[in-house]
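For the sake of transparency, this paper describes our internal protein records without simplification. The record that follows is passed on verbatim for readers who wish to inspect the format:
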Amino acid sequence: QERLVESGGGLVQTGGSLVLSCQVSGFSLADYAISWFREAPGKERERVSCTTRSELTHYADFARGRFTISRDNAKNTVYLQMAGLKPEDTAVYYCHTNLGGYVDVWGQGTLVTISS
């Protein structure tokens, strides 16, 4: 069964850093793009970043320059390094992939809280 499991969230102060991990199982990470999304209280879920099969990366404007996405296909894991964190980065962070057609897989999310 295809699964994504996020970890690494927590409480940090403004300006701090965190590294989120997304562990993939049930399929080969090397064959798929993976995205990180986030959902803040009262707001819509938004894409943060993605890494393609060819390891191209894309970032939302708010993430560019502060966040770095990377993948380790041998470990079936995608990482999101976050630095210079701000209170507005507080959200549940999810990883996501589309396995083709309407087959979307989401993780359960990991909570990131930034204190001011």
